[in-house]
Specification:
The chain is of the alpha/beta class. The chain folds into two domains: 2-101, Rossmann fold (3-Layer(aba) Sandwich); 105-183, Winged helix-like DNA-binding domain superfamily/Winged helix DNA-binding domain (Arc Repressor Mutant, subunit A, Orthogonal Bundle), CATH 1.10.10.10. 54% of the residues lie in helices and 9% in strands. The chain has ten helices and four strands, in the order H-E-H-E-H-E-H-E-H-H-H-H-H-H. It has helices at residues 2-7, 23-33, 48-56, 69-80, 88-102, 107-112, 116-126, 131-138, 142-156, 161-167; strands at 11-15, 38-43, 61-64, 85-86. It has a four-stranded parallel β-sheet.
Length: 185
């Protein structure tokens, strides 16, 4: 950090996880005080949350530590010239999210994308049930539960079970499933 203020480079490569503190916090401090210095975060984490935190902290790049020297060199040049770089998997997910948001679907509308059975499966996920418990409750095979979850994640453009639940507004918008409901389903 001291060297950043001393030398004021055009581009800084920074790990998201530093020994003494968060790389994101340091990036934010540098960004606030050195407006002409651009930061590229290097990480093993490619979660949406980490990318968003890095972007909010002022990072102009978010790349995997596994990046080749050649690609890293190109990224540094691009960022130095005012560009922005994000690893391909993250860029694909960002584009998917933007496209999804463009469709203007709110949580209530998202629920209607799911079949009644998929809604029941997701409701049980929201209640903390495991795949095996969902299968037992709905009187279906565990592989069928997994197939429903794959369909749900695809329809909602979700990466995790928890993200799927939060995209549809959590437990509140999902039908509550009980053991007696399963005989009718």
């Amino acid at each position: 950090v001291e060297n950043a203020f001393k030398y004021q480079p055009d581009v800084i490569l920074m790990d998201t996880r530093l020994l003494e503190c968060s790389g994101i916090e340091v990036a934010q401090r540098i960004h606030e005080e050195l407006l002409k210095t651009n930061i590229i975060m290097l990480t093993h984490s490619e979660t949406d949350e980490d990318l968003i935190s890095a972007t909010r902290a002022g990072a102009k790049g978010y790349l995997s530590k596994d990046i080749s020297i050649e690609s890293l060199t190109k990224a540094i040049i691009l960022v130095a010239e005012g560009g922005v770089v994000v690893s391909s998997p993250m860029a694909a997910r960002l584009l998917q999210e933007f496209n999804f948001l463009e469709e203007g679907k709110d949580a209530a509308k998202l629920v209607t994308l799911l079949s009644k059975r998929e809604q029941a499966v997701l409701s049980l996920v929201a209640q903390g049930f495991t795949n095996k418990e969902i299968a037992t409750t709905l009187v279906i095979c565990e592989n069928t539960v997994k197939a429903h979850l794959r369909n749900i994640m695809e329809k909602l453009h979700a990466n995790t079970r928890q993200q799927a639940v939060s995209l549809v507004g959590g437990k509140d918008l999902l039908p509550r499933v009980t053991q007696t409901d399963t005989k009718q389903a």
